[in-house]
Amino acid sequence: MQLLPRLCMATGTGDGDGEGSGKGRDSSSGKLATAVSSSSSTVSTSSSAAAAAVSEASSSASLPSLPSLSAAAAATLAASFSHVATLRPVCAGPSAAVVAAGDSLHGLVVARPAAVALHDLSTLEATSTSAAADAAAAAGSVKCAAHLHGGAAAVTGHQDGRLRLWRVSSRSPARLCLAAALPTVADRLRRFPVPSNHVTVRRHHRRLWIEHADTVSGVAASADGRLLFSVSWDKTLKVWAVPSLRCLQSLPAHDDAVNAVAVAPDGTVYTGSADKRVRVWAPRPAPDKARRARGRKHQPAYHLVATLSRHTAAVNALAVGSGGQALYSGGNDRSIVVWEREDSASHMVAIGALRGHRRAVLSIACSAGGLVVSGSADQTVRAWRRAADGRGYACVAVIDGHGAAVRSVAAAPSPSPAPQKWPRGGGGGGGDEEEWRVCSASFDGEVRVWSLRVSSGL
């Protein structure tokens, strides 16, 4: 069957060459900066149903046992996206980037081997940037990044098995300081003398259980910012206390490398692995009032509550949406499985799949307003909008502009003013318009920022 032509293709300056290539170094401070190029290209989709049809036709073979949730997309949605800017690395060589976004107030984290920076989502200017000395100390390629509660701190996971905590300097807000590398020296010295703290990670090689033995592939923070969760290719999930920077728990999470972690607002943790499974972890109940009255501070201990098995290949990405009521998992089977909370079983049940990517799904992000964004090895970013009744999803945009696989995506409501009305007869048919900033990072080091607008017609 001949496939329909792809909709929502970016028609702007996709390579971004030209005006942005000469920018990037701050001569006054000597810090590494980021080259920015802008584009005014805009592409509109007049019918989300047509975009969903393309999604279904281009990947009909993935997860045939699950119904396609994008097949019944609402035709009342209209969308447009524009390329706002491209943030390029200024140093030569491999510099794959990762991004993470909190909300319109907390901004954007852009992490590369040479520098970690916090960007304002409105102006896209770097508000805080790590110094060259701190970047040199952060050995190993950056694999993941996350915002911490409050927006003035971020954490990155690295190929050398360490996590690094970055905070905005109180003396110089333009500087992002390396606050700690986890596990800290103090934590290791405290546990080193006890023989039971040493575990065998492979033949004739032992480590402290608080250390990751392989690449840190995913990191996420709890909603209150008090706990940090990291996963690694060493098959473990670790729980960290942010105030004390101590490792509280290490769990043998999966039978193969763990690729992703996500945290719900209620503290439930989800991990995805190359063993094709998603596992659900929850804290054990708090101790009784008598123990707490004696002054013992309760530290949550996580345990396995469910295993979700619907993927047919490795799971690469996870994201939690709808206030913790929905979970999205993407993998090498090219599909995004949508899970919803099932009260009777106290975990998630698969209700369907979002299809359209031609290669592995590498990253997923959720934002307020029912927006789901996915990045793939097919070099595209897809935006999905959940229907108001929660029964289906519309593929509102297929963004094509990267020259390499999209390894990381982030989305946040646009910092622009309140929702506007599209005029009647325009693309939106006079409905309410919502706008997001969508950020995507690829293996070639480019970080692209897009403005996505979705209008519900009347």
Automatic annotation (TrEMBL):
It comes from Panicum hallii var. hallii. It holds the Pfam family WD40. Residues 11-40, 410-433 are annotated as: Disordered. Residues 29-40 have a biased composition (Low complexity). This is Uncharacterized protein. The keyword DNA repair does not apply. InterPro entries: JINGUBANG-like, WD40/YVTN_repeat-like_dom_sf, WD40_PAC1, WD40_repeat_dom_sf, WD40_rpt. Keywords: Repeat, WD repeat. WD repeats lie at residues 209-250, 251-281, 308-349, 354-384. SMART domains: WD40 (SM00320).
